[in-house]
Each structure stands twice: as C-alpha cells, then as structure tokens.
Design goal:
The protein is α/β, with parallel strands linked by helices. 30% of the residues lie in helices and 24% in strands.
C-alpha cells in the first residue's frame, strides 16, 4: 500500500523495520553485522551499479524515472533515512563485496590513522584516478564503508581494493621498496617511483 503526496504522486510507504535497518547502517558494527552499506545520490549509486556491486534495495523520490526495483518514497521519508543534512534524491543499500586478495605488484598506498571520513574518501578517489593498485589502511583508520566516506569517493570505492591490516607487520613481510611522505621529502609528482612500490602517508 502507499499514500498520495501533495502533488498526487503515488508513493510507497517505508516500514519501521526498513528505517531501523538503514539508520543502523550509519554505525560500523551494524554494517559489519549485516554486510551492507549506504550510498546516496544518483551519481554515486550509478557508479556502484556500473561496477556490478550487488544492490540490496533502493529508495528514490524521482518517480518520473520509472526505474525497476526502486521503491518511490516521499522527500519527507527519504530525509528520515538519509545520512545527509539535506537528503539527495535517492538512497541505496549495497552488499559489502568480498575482499580481493592482497597484491604484491603495482603501487600500494599505505595510510596510517586517517580518521576523517571526507579525507579517506578523497584519498580513495585519488587512488582510483592515479591508478594505484590497492590501498592498505591501518586498523585505526576510519571504516571505508562509512556513509561519509562513500559519499566522498564518488563511486571510486568500487574500483579500488582496500585492506585493513597491521601496518608494521605488513611492511615487515613485504619485499617491495618503501617510500614515506615527509614534509621535507622530494616531490612525489616529479619523482619516478619503481613500478612495484609502497608509499606511506598518514597524520
């Protein structure tokens, strides 16, 4: 069943159970428990769908698009489940994909103790842009499936393998040359790095 909006458009109702599930996914422990994460906005959702991430459910106010598998809800109900101060036009829940094997080739970026979601999202987007093979995060780095991180990646998270590891143990066992980002170091944009290398950044 549904209800009529002010402009007489037919919307679906969203249940309390659905609202509870979606709002719970703002917390890491429930994302891990359910194996799900939130993405908002047509751009981000479209990028994740293009990369074949498995869609759990989708909610939108754009009834004119007539997309299959989407529940159309009012702006008021979308705001209830949105992580944003002002909700976008759509919100989707995706299944967290299985982790890809750790690679020993290519350029690996290692980040230490990055706790700001927006910063991590930007790093993921830049890794995707510059063709970084994988991202290795310290165990105290913010969760990459945090809604604010997902928003900042603009879909790049679907294309970049991300691992959370004990960095000290990882570096000790790796045979690749290791570079560290320092304020007084050489310019990374003008320095030619080996094909297979590790670059460390952090707070």
């Amino acid at each position: 069943m549904g209800c009529l909006s002010k402009n007489q458009t037919y919307y679906n109702l969203i249940s309390k159970c659905q609202i509870q599930l979606i709002t719970s996914l703002q917390q890491k422990k429930y994302r891990n428990k359910e194996g799900l994460f939130i993405a908002e906005g047509p751009k981000v959702i479209g990028e994740l769908l293009k990369e074949k991430l498995e869609l759990h459910s989708c909610f939108s106010t754009l009834v004119e698009e007539n997309m299959q598998g989407v529940s159309y809800i009012s702006e008021e109900n979308l705001q209830k489940i949105s992580c944003l101060t002002t909700a976008n036009t759509s919100l989707a829940i995706f299944k967290i994909p299985n982790s890809k094997p750790l690679q020993e080739i290519g350029l690996t970026l290692v980040i230490d103790a990055v706790r700001d979601p927006g910063n991590l999202g930007t790093i993921i987007r830049l890794c995707d842009w510059f063709g970084v093979t994988q991202l290795v995060c310290s165990l105290d780095t913010v969760d990459c499936y945090n809604p604010k991180v997902i928003q900042a990646t603009m879909g790049s998270i679907a294309r970049l393998p991300i691992h959370y590891l004990d960095i000290e143990a990882y570096l000790k066992n790796s045979k690749a040359p290791v570079y560290s980002a320092m304020m007084d170091g050489a310019n990374v944009y003008t320095t030619e790095l080996p094909t297979h290398a590790i670059l460390i950044m952090g707070n």
